[in-house]
Amino acid sequence: MLHRGIAAGLAVVGLCLGPAVLASTALAQEQPSAQVFQTWRTTTLGTYKSVDAYRRALDSARIRIGDAADEILGRPVFPYTRTKTVVELAVLSAAELGVESDESSLADVYERARRAGLELCPPEVGPQLRLDYRNQPLGEALDIAMEPVATYSGDPTILTLANWGTGLVLIGRDGRSESKVNRISRFVFALPTNGRLEAMREPQIVPTSSEQTNQAPKGGL
């Protein structure tokens, strides 16, 4: 009788826990694992030390920069690293991150990527990858998954690499957390680096050449 009572009790517990276990298993299966992500390509940061250097390189490559993108590249809080650092990148659509509705929010896409083990890119990935990715297919647009940088008017902005048939461009897009994202929109994420990229997201202010001129001591020795 005692054994029958224990068995009956365990059956009841199983019935109670069953839906929760199944739900948590389904949720785990819905989110991709970072270990299965393939490296799409790598990019090396630190080749160009300032916004002026990037602007010259982009101009030399005949790559156009949109007004918003050009603005945030020159913001004091846009970090440029002085040390060459290789970043491994992956490209995923919002749908591949589990978004099922036609539209989601940027915050939702970022959160799904974080739970999957992906990282946001250092902002410098935007201009450097634009210089590297010269064979971008016609009609493709890739959003850089990054912390937004505010323009002078205060609009949070992230970077987008696009090829719309009139040449390669680096432009800005709405970086507000609530901004709408289509499920077919594709983002560039950084593969896990055990926190190595965290410091690169902090502002590392590198003066432009004009700022260096203005800051130079007056008078001679």
Which key phrases capture this entry?
alpha+beta, eight-stranded mixed sheet, single chain, disordered C terminus, globular, Mannose-Binding Protein A, Chain A, 221 residues
Q: How does the SSE layout of this entry go?
A:
Blueprint: H1 2-30, E1 41-45, H2 51-60, E2 64-65, H3 67-73, E3 85-93, E4 103-105, H4 106-116, H5 125-132, E5 141-144, E6 149-150, E7 156-163, E8 168-174, E9 180-182, E10 186-190, H6 198-201, H7 209-215
Parallel strand pairs: 2-8, 5-10
Antiparallel strand pairs: 1-3, 3-10, 4-9, 5-7, 6-7, 7-8
Characterization of this structure:
The chain has helices spanning 2-30, 51-60, 67-73, 106-116, 125-132, 198-201, 209-215, and strands at residues 41-45, 64-65, 85-93, 103-105, 141-144, 149-150, 156-163, 168-174, 180-182, 186-190. With 221 residues, it is an alpha+beta fold. The chain has a single domain, classed as Mannose-Binding Protein A, Chain A, CATH 3.10.100. Strands 1, 2, 3, 5, 6, 7, 8 and 10 form an eight-stranded mixed sheet that branches. The chain has a two-stranded antiparallel ribbon with strand order 4-9. A hairpin with a 4-residue loop joins strand 7 and strand 8. The longest helix is centred in the first third of the chain and has 29 residues, at 2-30. The termini are far apart.
For the sheet with most strands, the description reads:
8 strands, mixed
The low-pLDDT segments are 1-30, 198-221
> CATH topology, anyone?
Mannose-Binding Protein A, Chain A
The quaternary state of the protein chains shown equals single chain
Number of domains: 1
Number of strands: 10
CATH top-level class: Alpha Beta
Q: Based on CA inertia axes, which overall geometry fits?
A: globular
Provide the helix percentage: 25-40%
Mean pLDDT: 81
Radius of gyration: 23 Å
Helix-strand string: HEHEHEEHHEEEEEEHH
Give the name of the CATH architecture.
Answer: Roll
Span between N and C termini?
Answer: 101 Å
Helix tally equals 7
What structural class is derived from the secondary structure elements? alpha+beta
Strand proportion: 15-25%
